[in-house]
Amino acid sequence: MATTMTRPPIGRLRAAKAPTVLEDELPGGVHSVFVSRRALPLVELRLVVPLAPDQIRKPALTSVLSEALFAGTERHDRVALAEAIEGLGGRLVAHVDEDRLVVTGSVLAEHLQRFLELLTEVLTVPTYPEPEVRADSDRAADEMVIALSQPEVVARQALRRRMYAGHPYATPLPTPTALKRVKAADLRLLHQSLLAPPGAHLVLVGDFQAPRARGLTEDALGKWLRRKGSRDSDLAATGTPRPGPLELVARAGSVQSNVRLGGGAPSLSDPDWPAAALAGSVLGGMFSSRITANLRERNGYSYSPRSSFRHLRAGSSFVLAADVASAVTAASLVEIMYELGKVATTGITEDELELARRYVVGRFSFETATLPGLASTLAGLAIKGVGLDYLVKYPKGLIATTKGQVDEAAQRYLGPHGLATLVVGDPDIVRDQLSRVEEVVVRQP
Amino acid sequence: MPPRRQRHHFERAVLDNGLKVLVVPGPSDNLIGVSVVYDVGFRSEPEGRTGFAHLFEHMMFQGSANVGKVEHIRLVESAGGIMNGHTRADLTAYYEALPPSALELALFLEADRMASLAVTEENLRNQVDVVKEEILVNVINRPYGGFPWIPLPALAFDLYPNAHNGYGDFSHLEQATVEDSEDFYTTYYAPSNAVLTVVGSAQPDEVFALAERYFGPIAHRPVPDHGPWPEPRLAKDRHQALRDPKIPQPAFVVGYRTVDPVGQLDRYVVYHVLANVLAEGDASRLRARMVYRDHNVTDVGCMLGTFGDDDYFVRDPSLFQVVVFHPGTATTEALLKAIDDEIGRLASDGPTKEELARVVAGSSAEAWRNLDSILGRAHIVGSLETIHGSAELIDELPVRLGAVTSADVAAAAADLAGQHRAVLELQPAKS
Hints:
By secondary structure, chain A is of the alpha+beta class.
């Protein structure tokens, strides 16, 4: 019953049309971006601010602030504020990482003005009530206990420490004890500097006319925009990570090992970036990658091995991640080293380049096709100081990249010798196997 | 002013072999979404073969007559597309989103694996290993992994289809044979047991013609039995405590039964509103009380369905779940009492007018957000057509939610308060 079918063509490679962006500086030094997208009656908002080095080094403080920001204002207590926001079909949350604080919002378009007024209230007259802050810091501590029990969180944190030694980015996640010690007065002080208008970026994407939304935003946020303040968030560039011996982070009883290799990568504005993105995709950035074919489809060692890039203000990184059964930890590492070494020494094929090029161009158009996807992409570019014409230049750069450039990027960034290697796993099961492959240093988490 | 109503346009055809074809053209940035939803899930697995439906989902990427092992994915990726698949209690969905120029390719790929899947001993053993790794990473090595979707149905239901572990026991996965695979494929992957959906920048006539060309030659096979497997509500309360040395803090889930999600949809949506009144957003009753007033839980949430994301994609029996993570400063009994109090208050007074309006605004915004991603839209539309025979529900559900009254919510709360329930606790290692 299996008839032979001719395969239809895969179609022409075409970059998605880039959106029209209204980019402007609002009073108070707020960089603003408005994009009209009218298919759904929603507006998506990002307010993003860079962390200064001393703020990055106090993650307990920034992380409790991201919870307690909505704990109350002079006009609303926490529940009343939540009622007001939810009544608009709205959501407003904050999140902090080692680089920035982001306020993420979404609302029915018809209620945008009221939503922005509530945001203004949160930014200008937050109260950080003592009992609420105490409860929030206790809860943040409980959440951290749960997070730290997750092996991938342990692995991420350990890799950060390895890759960014000496830089503020190496700061570990806050301990539960440090979180419990956070005081309301500290948050009020931090709020003044962290959420001052200068140097903040505001992105709105959704169902509006951009110039009208800009006017409405300037009005609704007026009280905040008129706030004086200054910001010094200069951050030294991250150095190139030193590879060093394999670090085995002990997790007794683990039935799997989380294998991670990390190194430096070109920034989004670096001319090497499109070539590196393509090299990374061929290696492990898509399902049809060498790492997936090897570890998953050939050997059955891992469910979802993958590589990815991460771009922060002060530096970019490449990370290869594979969660594998304990018994095949060393065997998996050998295959990973082989694939990294192979791509860094013999490059990729023309067929692989074409596939990766089409995939990465296509993937980028999907990432920017949804309201939250586009808003987050724009906010991410803005905070790193990357021009928004990246939306056009990146796909163009991908289309123009040659095999020679990709091979060169693979040599420069993907060679196993330049990467820091770590494994989170049960030392009793994996230490001996790994010692046969590399020098191993065991560390407690 | 009521929020804008969405009105999609739905075009349908049925091929001679029984394949249902659905086209929902809609605004998108010049992209299309394609899904094939098969009416088979965990609940149809043979006894002794737990986890088979999900394992089989993996096999669907292992090649067919004109497509090599994992070439399906390579072709989608090389067309600039993204794809995935998932298995739930009552359905298995495959979906991809691509530029419109790749419509024909997507239909060819889906048709080829519906017509002529190539399962070999070698690729079956390979995927058994991959699925075991998936279970290690998502369940066995992960604190709270598989909670509550694996242990709760086991406690709350008695019939094998509803109660067993859908990820599967390792011993069952290891025993899976090529012959099992062929039987499962012949029975459940018949064209008459599937819905093909295309959403986005597509012309219905073109889709119907291409569907006829690629899927038309597949032979008709009878529609298999796919439940439902209704079972009576619990005759008395059930309680189980599981100890898990990996977890740092306790957690528990309360499982109640809802009405039939398909046959009594108008009443089922009331449980959705009730779930949001209780635990959606910081102003909701349980969050405001337990998280922000009593400070004795880290997180509390309510959901419908058996898996967590299958509220409208599951047949009878379905569950209403209250999930609580807490630091152990209060006893489970005390926390259950707080939940009982809030459900009891709603049963006697119903939500306030403002509360109901807020939940309706939130649910309506949520319904729009769910349609934002074209990949998501492709499988949501196909799944509603499969379970309810009505893709139109993407437009109608927000309207039905908006029509729910305070008295309706009170009645649903009274239904929960008056029934026997299953309480499943997870406890950390004894210190």
